[in-house]
Amino acid sequence: MIRLKIFLVSLLPHHFLSRIVLILTRSKHFPFLKRMMRWFIKKHSVNMHEAADPVIDHYSTMNTFFTRSLAADARPIDNTRNVITCPADGAISEIGKISQNKIFQAKKHYYSLTKLMGGLEDRAAVFSQGSYATIYLSPKDYHRVHMPFAGTLKEMIHVPGRLFSVAPEYVNNIPGIFAKNERVISIFDTEIGTMALILVGAMFVSSIETVWSGVVVPPRARRVTQVAYAHNADQINLIKGEEMGRFNMGSTVIMLFANPSVTWDSHMIKEHSTTLGQRIGAAT
Fold this sequence. Notes:
By secondary structure, the chain is α+β, with helices and mostly antiparallel strands. 20% of the residues lie in helices and 30% in strands.
């Protein structure tokens, strides 16, 4: 049954449907807007007490609701030296070491580090002895992504692709899904080595934003595009815990660290709930 479901989903015009959702969720004339928000909060048990603005009537579109900010004290950041923090609320999909240019996805599925990096072998080689952590953001979660470690932006890469759902049933059954879906890769220099944050698009999540460039995902992109920031006069430096990007609705963020000394905390295992700013590992 799941194979049939995936086959049928693969036939859908992912980008076309996602663009329609993008337009609707940004419309101030969305039918039954406030009723839809209240239904969503109840269905997904969204904790509005943590929001910077908990009043539903203050949100003018579904997108402003989906991308709502948190109260200033809602997510304390672990600023211990060399500690890596969770970049988002969500749950661990998989976590571990990169081996033989492969990253574990789920069940028996692995995917290519090089393909994840848009086929850029030199970029992938930097992380070949490193570590990864994949975090799934469900629809109920806070949809912004923050820095797990302070860094200076070197490069941003947009990789076009499909927009399969990244819900667990799809991740468990579609080989290489993260290397197939559209994604935005941000590469940073940090005190513990090179770090990449990869925001993976998904069905109805065709709009990915970063704080330095706004909406990144261009319509109808057909090739990998790279933007260098290393030699910019105004360098982009972000501190640990600072916002770096956001999704519309839920999706997945993948962290890569090149430093082979990075280790993940033992309790950070598959399906473990994560909270933005909490410790997830460290460089030794």
